[in-house]
Amino acid sequence: MIEPDEVPRTARGTNLYIADINLQRLLDRRASEELERHEDRLADFGAWAGGPLDEQAEYTDRHANPRHVPQPYGPNGPQPGHIVFNPRYLACHAEAYARGAVGLPYQKGATGRHLACFTMGYLLSQADVSIHCPVTMTGAVAHVLNTVAPDAVRDRFLPQLTRMDGQALSGGTWATELHGGSDVGATTTRAVKTDEAWALHGLKWFTSNAGSGLALATARPDGAPAGGKGLGCYLVPSHLDGGQPNAYGIRRLKEKVGTRGLATAELDLLGATAYEVAGPGEGLKVMMAALEYSRIHNAVASAGLLRRAFVESLGWSVHRAAFGHPVVHYPMVQDQLLDMQMELEAAVALSFESVFAFDALNTGDSDPEQGGDWLRLVTALAKYRTADQAVKACRTAVEMVGGNGYTEEFPTARLYRDCLVTAVWEGPANIQALELLRLVAGKRPGDQIFLGRVGAALSDLPPQAGDTADLLEGALEECRAALSHLRRNPDQAPRHGRRLLDLLSDTLATALLCEEAVADLKLGDSRKMLVANRFAARVLAHHNPIATDMEPALAAFEDVILYQPVG
Fold this sequence. Notes:
Elements (H helix, E strand, L loop, with lengths): L20 H10 L1 H32 L3 E3 L3 E2 L2 E2 L3 E3 L2 H12 L16 H13 L1 H19 L3 H12 L8 E4 L15 E4 L4 E11 L5 E8 L10 E6 L10 E6 L10 E15 L4 H37 L1 E2 L2 E2 L4 H32 L5 H34 L9 H9 L1 H4 L4 H12 L5 H14 L7 H22 L4 H29 L5 H14 L11 H4 L1 H5 L6
Parallel strand pairs: 5-8, 6-8
Antiparallel strand pairs: 1-4, 2-3, 6-7, 7-11, 8-9, 9-11, 10-11, 12-13
């Protein structure tokens, strides 16, 4: 049986990268050259995340949330209000940028790939989502400035976000308004042309990383048409060239369920100076490009939360004794752990598929049309499914630890509160369903791209796949029938969007696990095939294990749970 010295009691104090065998194998399989380039950096990052960052996250969450200091009166009248952060949060926030969580792709000699940055996001979320969130938005703003901003705006501001000397500015994305929510096209913020820039007037209702140095904001120039087509996208600095604060003020900070270390505010734009990134007709597209980048980060963050939930659950089960035995010896606990682990591995496969698609598109390794459709499709599926499973896993981690897990003295309580943001951040499930429908039931050929990708994975399955091949083939045919039906009956698509999201994300997750399993089988290791088989039986067939003999994954529990080869 598993010995206590084989499993850490908790993730705190461990190297979150080195301990993650599944992640390392995936990166080596899919991007070995990029992994070789950054592996030492990732290992250092994993040690920092599992130590100082996690310690800071607990301290900030429990004892030192950011606070808003409203406009005080000085000798010359009212002074600008500001947000106060504790020094440990500020130090870790700056450290994330210094370690390359945003800037790596922009350094001299870099490949331009963002894989290492997204991997750092996956590691960050295991320790502190309240720092991963601003890192995400900073990466999104940098990506937009690098790819679509006018040369003058890009050259002036991009280096301020991507420097790695500990002095980088962080970014924000200001799109949400009180009346609109996800309906960004309903924006009422005005953009008024000035001699050298623009002045923004309006209220942004939910601005995370409210202390950012540079933010993208949607606004409508006077005279522009209604709806999304009339929106421009503007870059708003927190301070002007002379060092004085820009003309916007904080109404209040939001009181949130989780991510309490992160300052989220209602902002009044009072003629704030802004620089045009894209005018009406392109502004909404630019903001959506930023949100798409953030959705990839949301997916890897959810996978990271799943990883932390699994590690805490396994550590508790190994080190906690009940009724005379370590908890991990009990079959029901083993079953729960295997279910958490298979969902974790599916989430990593699905979220990093969106990362690989992003890098392929942005480095010219994929066709701009087909690659763009695949990126948007897999990102919608990954964002939805990983967030849904992260919430379930974090809830299970609280349950497995029990009463202690419900207290703030254990990481599981913060983990559960923080994970809830992933379901609503950058668009809840219904928004992802609408994005999916545009790709598979609208003018785009996303349905054929999806069917082709899953079909390729199915065709490579060997005899060891057993029933999984039949289950995946059945799911693929179900997907084909559903997509064909919606093509013939587009008026029914809105009603079935969420069901389609479930069907396609479950099917793709199974296919990706099978691809990994086939690669490992060629090396003589059938462990991943056991995981894929269990996943297919649980998710695609809704298999009832009581009606069958003990499944192979449970019979090989120790090897599967500890990522040991299975012959």
